[in-house]
Design goal:
Elements: H1 6-57, H2 65-76, E1 84-88, E2 95-96, H3 104-111, E3 116-120, E4 128-137, E5 140-150, H4 152-200, H5 218-267, H6 272-304, E6 312-315, H7 316-333, E7 337-343, E8 347-350, H8 352-368, E9 375-382, E10 386-393, H9 414-419, H10 427-437, E11 441-447, E12 451-459
Parallel strand pairs: 7-9
Antiparallel strand pairs: 1-2, 1-5, 3-4, 4-5, 6-8, 9-10, 10-12, 11-12
Bound molecules: adenosine-5'-diphosphate (ADP).
């Protein structure tokens, strides 16, 4: 298809369909008209023949032309000068009164009492329609009548019809083609506008919107869908920007501390213990940076869908015991009681390192955000499909309005910041990524001042 625009294609198809319909309708009209006129003309010829045959049957020997004219006029509404009439008598094979040829077939039919219609050429400028009619007298064929009529009027009428069609067709085609072009342009104008807006949209201008007409039609729905998509892209871009700004900020703090410590160490010669203290502190900062970078890496891999998962059967009871063992010193230093409750056996398919990290993050939070004397408990149960792991604490709790936001990257509640606990706000975001990578989900229930319950659903291995 050589057309590059929808508008041209629509116009092309529109006019093509119109041409086709015109040809089909015109052809059918022509056929019907021709058929009806022929039928009418044949019926009139039959009427003429019948009437004249009755006269012969009644004994008339001759016909005066005025009489014939009168009969033609009765059936055709006019009497053409060039009408045809002739009569054969069985005694003489010659005809009387006319110039019509009598074909063998027509004669044969007539002798058996059957009328015959023929269209004959060469009798005048137009073909003639001739009816050969048997004259029956006292039950037997006593002669033959032929009546005919030039097809001049009929052919002229048909030709006129063709001329009218030929005149109307190009005009209708031009009007339809032009109308189609204008309509297609009008209908597609919103698309042009959308294209123009889309061309102007870039990462910096994702807040721009495609204009909606409000008509509620397909193009309006397309514009709305585009705007929704732009809205989502805008949010995603802003989040990505915010994420890199937050990540840089979080990395900057320990790096500044590290730099400061090294500078202090280099400023003047020191005793070995002092160097050791400086190096220990530097190591802490380096650990912090390493943890941060590791977390960021995990999140971006998870975003890109390339988080490495070393899947194998994991016994969650064992995993819990390992984590408890690991965080026990931290719990003791915070004077928080750490215990497990109703731990059932549950095995899932998963990455043990990621799962350990997930549980560590939750238990670590539980300890960090619980006052001395409080407790952190781990439950493990199972239902038909899931292993359900719950980490509950009796800590500071999370306000209702923050309960969804705490899973966002770098988000920390005001209370958590005020406590001065270490943390950058990536733990829960990482936990959620790990849970989702295992095909599970994480939920939180919490009441300020009473404690929090984080529940994880992980699909059981089948
Ligand atoms: P971090 O602990 O490093 O700040 P997280 O992503 O683990 O980051 O947690 C995000 C925030 O959610 C925390 O800063 C804190 O405000 C809140 N939070 C998480 N766990 C708890 C908890 N067990 N009790 C109260 N608040 C919590």
């Amino acid at each position: 298809m050589p057309f590059t625009t929808i508008r041209a294609r629509l116009t092309f198809w529109y006019t093509s369909l119109l041409t086709l319909s015109f040809l089909v309708l015109g052809g059918t009209g022509y056929g019907l008209l021709s058929y009806t006129l022929s039928q009418e003309s044949d019926a009139a010829l039959r009427g003429v023949a019948q009437t004249l045959a009755e006269r012969v049957g009644g004994g008339a020997e001759t016909f005066i032309p005025a009489e014939i004219d009168e009969v033609f006029r009765r059936f055709f509404g006019f009497s053409p000068l060039e009408h045809y009439f002739q009569r054969f008598l069985p005694e003489s094979s010659s005809s009387r009164g006319g110039k019509l040829p009598l074909s063998e077939q027509a004669l044969k039919n007539a002798s058996r009492g059957i009328p015959t219609f023929e269209t004959l050429e060469g009798l005048g400028p137009y073909p003639a329609r001739v009816l050969t009619w048997p004259v029956v007298k006292a039950g037997r064929v006593s002669g033959v009548l032929q009546v005919g009529m030039s097809r001049e009027n009929l052919d002229k009428t048909l030709r006129r019809f063709l001329w009218i069609m030929a005149g109307i067709f190009p005009v209708a085609l031009i009007l339809a083609g032009g109308g189609g072009w204008v309509l297609a342009r009008k209908a597609l104008r919103p698309v042009d506008r959308m294209t123009e807006t889309a061309r102007r949209i870039s990462a910096e201008h994702l807040d721009r919107q495609v204009r909606e007409s409000g008509a509620g039609d397909e193009l309006d729905r397309l514009a709305r869908t585009l705007n929704e998509m732009l809205g989502r892209l805008n949010v995603a871009f802003q989040e990505a920007r915010q994420f890199s700004a937050d990540a840089s900020h979080e990395l900057q703090t320990p790096l500044t501390v590290l730099k400061g410590e090294i500078e202090v160490g280099l400023r003047s010669p020191r005793r070995p213990e002092e160097y050791q203290a400086i190096l220990r502190s530097a190591l802490e900062e380096t650990d912090r940076i390493a943890r941060l970078v590791e977390g960021l890496l995990l999140l971006s891999r998870s975003d890109a869908g390339v988080l490495r998962m070393d899947r194998r059967p994991v016994d969650l009871k064992n995993l819990i015991e390992g984590v408890i063992h690991q965080v026990k010193p931290l719990a003791e230093s915070h004077s928080v009681k750490l215990q497990t409750r109703s731990v059932e056996l549950a095995q899932i398919q998963g990455d043990p390192d990621h799962l350990r990290r997930l549980l560590l993050n939750l238990v670590d939070n539980g300890i960090k955000y619980t006052q001395p004397g409080g407790s952190v408990e781990i439950f493990l149960r199972r239902d038909e499909k899931f292993a359900i792991l719950q980490v509950s604490d009796t800590g500071i709790g999370i306000p209702e309005e923050d309960q969804e936001t705490v899973f966002r990257r770098f988000y920390r509640t005001a209370a958590a910041r005020a406590r001065g606990e270490s943390g950058v706000g990536l733990g829960l975001a990482i936990a959620r990524s790990i849970v989702e990578a295992h095909g599970g989900r994480i939920e939180v229930r919490s009441a300020v001042g009473k404690g929090s319950h984080f529940t994880i659903f992980l699909p059981l291995s089948t």
